[in-house]
Amino acid sequence: MKFETRAIHESTIIDPATGGIGGSLQLSTTFERAEDGSYPGGYVYTRESNPNRLALERGLAVLEGGVDAAAFSSGSGATMTLLQALQSGDHVVVPQDMYYGLRRLMQEVFALAGLRFSYIDMADLNAVEQAVTQDTRLVIIETPSNPLLKITDIQAVGEITHAAGAYLAVDNTILTPVLQRPLELGADFVIHATTKYMGGHSDVLGGALIAREATELWQRIQLVQHLGGSVPSPFDCWLVARGLQTLAYRMRGHNDNAQKVAAFLAEHPAIDAVLYPGLETHAGNAVHSRQSGGGGGLMSVLVKGEAEAAINAAAKVRVFTRATSFGGVHSLIEHRASVEGPDSTTPGNLLRLSIGLEHPDDLIADLDHALGS
Ligand SMILES: *Cc1c(COP(=O)(O)O)cnc(C)c1O
Q1: CA–CA separation, 78 vs 53, rounded Å?
Q2: 59-81: per-residue pLDDT in tens?
């Protein structure tokens, strides 16, 4: 069956007791044993397994084309558990311009616990070749990256990684499996902040890891999660699973709207550059078109002038909402450097736009007004 059909049928369980097609919410933390000591329902304790989490994990595995998935209490929690499954002394290669919260997690937490990190430009395959050695255990990439929307060649980095005997994990939060399937391109793991497009309505925090094969590292990840407990609540699982049902249609809407907004901004006199991989002028467009089905819903723009010009433009929007994050139905605009704080390397004149599901004409008119033409 096709993606849309599976997305609807494989991430929900019709409630057997009532026939409710929205599925039931199982809030129990503990499950009854039979007289012989067995567990008739297959569940023991909710930190290890819960029906709502299992349904979500099955949906995530199916949509990314993996053998298994683990749902987490946040996107950061997913990457944290992946790193906790490594051992002191392991070498990890990550992007220079990765999601800033994860860069801080690496620098301020895991570097102190003995993991060794190399921060490199993943768009430069020579730099990847040089950084990945026989000591490397894991390579993490984000493509497109956030907030610079740089493109990494997933297949090429996968080959370099595997030649060194390491694992490749790809953060697929920005495109989702509707537009990009890293496991089919050779990645070992996919990472998601389901907080973004999978939840899709800015009302649930969550994360996920999906595995191409049940490798030794995957078993260790599951062990760390079961013992450590960075699991989502049943209701959070139910919300994300509901989001999966409409994911394909929402992603098409985000993608079509963003393509129109990007084309408009690229011609706008108040804009210096539009960072959006769906534009032919983007440096990574050739690689991106080969490995994905569209530019997605996220873009950044460099406003002509300094930080003040960008902040002033963001102050004038009426349809866009000034807020961080992305992936919901509301269009959001954000001055990224001031959210990232004093150690940010993001250009001061950069605004990040999450293109929502409003009508594109209204979004374009709003930006045109805000940019003062
Ligand atoms: C948002 C985001 C995260 C963090 O997810 P949280 O749910 O906020 O912890 C990680 N990676 C990427 C690419 C993100 O966009």
Answers
A1: 14
A2: 999 999 999 999 999 999 999 99
Q: In angstroms, what CA-CA distances link 204 with 139, 201, 246?
A: 28, 8, 15
**Residues in the ligand 1 pocket, defined by CB under 6 Å:** 74-76, 99, 101-102, 142, 146, 171, 173, 193, 195-196, 205, 207
pLDDT digits (tens, 9 = 90+) for 261-318: 999 999 999 999 999 999 999 999 999 999 999 999 999 999 999 999 999 999 999 9
Burial class (CB in 10 A: 0-12, 13-18, 19+), 104: middle
Q: pLDDT value at position 342?
A: 82
Name, in order, each residue with C-beta under 8 angstroms of 48's C-beta and a sequence gap of 6 or more. 226
Which helix (H) or strand (E) segment is 353 a member of? strand 350-354
- Say how many Å lie between the CA of residue 14 and the centre of ligand 1: 30
Q: How far is the CA of 205 from the centre of ligand 1 (A)?
A: 9
Name the DSSP letter for residue 110.
I
Question: Annotated catalytic, 171?
Answer: yes
